[in-house]
């Protein structure tokens, strides 16, 4: 990493002083991300003034994003790329035609000067929102960070560039295709929870009130696929514990820190795909869910359930069809 980042971070020597080494800047930044240490604490660890650390941490984060983001965190743009994502959900989670799991979290921060209630969220804290789409292997496919915590949760997703691209058929999403052992074309779609509106391209579980068996089974199958994004957030916060504190930086710096951590999250999973021990998993005999180690940590705040939103009839019909399919011989798995 030092070798790749040096062209962007190395300063010129002067007659007055030698510049800080890139390795030291990177080490201090990674320590901050991993532990959430305050700048005065880092000052004593690295023997660098806190004011200097305050300046170079955003620079290092920006350099990491510039060097690695296009390599490790790139949203699919073609039908073939989206189909590869869907194939991994099918093989790993037995949920078909899935483009990814969508979820959002609030990142707590100190109230910025003169911000009023702009960043004030429903939990009584100031925050920005991190909205992501995860693939079947806990990697982020799409990240949007920076929406103010005071915005409505439903509005946060609807203002994301990916939402607009899908709505306007600019995202390269494949045409509907039949599910395995079936002949009825079904749209490719994302999976989410009650914070998102039901659409033909966004499925979510049935309401918990009076579910019949097929609805219960479908909700379980969908939630099993959707858990990947919860676990992705869990891994992110378990490794980068700065998110478990209240961040004191300027909102623009928090955006950089968050995007940098998401890039590093993907980079680690790509280079060390088997180094995951803290995720949820199922008991092979009873199929009971065994919570991942990250669930013992403090959690980021999720988004509020969406209420009073008009649901498209086509989306309801599609979810009903899927609930019948996953209970039929064509789509059922051992229960």
TrEMBL record:
<feature type="domain" description="DDE Tnp4">
    <location>
        <begin position="103"/>
        <end position="266"/>
    </location>
</feature>
<keyword id="KW-0378">Hydrolase</keyword>
<comment type="similarity">
    <text>Belongs to the HARBI1 family.</text>
</comment>
<dbReference type="GO" id="GO:0016787">
    <property type="term" value="F:hydrolase activity"/>
</dbReference>
<dbReference type="GO" id="GO:0046872">
    <property type="term" value="F:metal ion binding"/>
</dbReference>
<dbReference type="InterPro" id="IPR027806">
    <property type="entry name" value="HARBI1_dom"/>
</dbReference>
<dbReference type="GO" id="GO:0004518">
    <property type="term" value="F:nuclease activity"/>
</dbReference>
<keyword id="KW-0540">Nuclease</keyword>
<keyword id="KW-0479">Metal-binding</keyword>
<dbReference type="Pfam" id="PF13359">
    <property type="entry name" value="DDE_Tnp_4"/>
</dbReference>
<protein>
    <submittedName>
        <fullName>Protein ALP1-like</fullName>
    </submittedName>
</protein>
<dbReference type="GO" id="GO:0005634">
    <property type="term" value="C:nucleus"/>
</dbReference>
<keyword id="KW-0539">Nucleus</keyword>
<dbReference type="InterPro" id="IPR045249">
    <property type="entry name" value="HARBI1-like"/>
</dbReference>
């Amino acid at each position: 990493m030092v070798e790749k980042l040096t062209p962007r971070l190395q300063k010129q020597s002067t007659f007055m002083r030698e510049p800080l080494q890139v390795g030291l800047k990177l080490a201090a930044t990674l320590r901050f991300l991993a532990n959430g240490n305050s700048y005065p604490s880092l000052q004593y660890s690295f023997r660098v003034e806190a004011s200097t650390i305050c300046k170079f941490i955003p620079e290092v984060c920006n350099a990491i994003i510039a060097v690695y983001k296009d390599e490790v965190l790139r949203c699919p743009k073609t039908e073939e790329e989206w189909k590869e994502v869907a194939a991994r959900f099918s093989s790993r989670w037995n949920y078909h035609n899935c483009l990814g799991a969508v979820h959002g979290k609030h990142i707590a921060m100190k109230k910025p000067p003169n911000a009023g209630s702009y960043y004030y969220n429903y939990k009584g804290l100031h925050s920005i929102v991190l909205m992501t789409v995860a693939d079947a292997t806990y990697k982020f496919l799409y990240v949007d960070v920076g929406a103010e915590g005071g915005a409505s949760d439903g509005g946060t997703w609807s203002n994301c560039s990916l939402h607009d691209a899908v709505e306007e058929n600019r995202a390269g999403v494949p045409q509907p295709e039949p599910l395995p052992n079936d002949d009825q074309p079904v749209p490719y779609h994302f999976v989410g929870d009650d914070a998102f509106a039901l659409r033909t391209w966004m499925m979510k579980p049935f309401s918990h009130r009076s579910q019949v068996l097929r609805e219960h089974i479908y909700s379980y199958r969908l939630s099993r696929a959707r858990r990947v994004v919860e676990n992705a957030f869990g891994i992110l916060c378990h490794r980068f514990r700065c998110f478990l504190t209240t961040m004191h930086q300027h909102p623009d710096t928090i955006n950089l820190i968050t995007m940098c951590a998401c890039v590093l999250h993907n980079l680690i999973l790509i280079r060390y795909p088997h180094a995951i021990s803290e995720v949820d998993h199922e008991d092979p005999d009873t199929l009971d869910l065994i919570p991942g180690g990250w669930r013992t940590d403090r959690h980021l705040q999720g988004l509020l359930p969406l209420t009073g939103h008009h649901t498209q009839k086509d989306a309801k019909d599609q979810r009903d069809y899927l609930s019948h399919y996953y209970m039929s011989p064509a789509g059922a798995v051992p229960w």
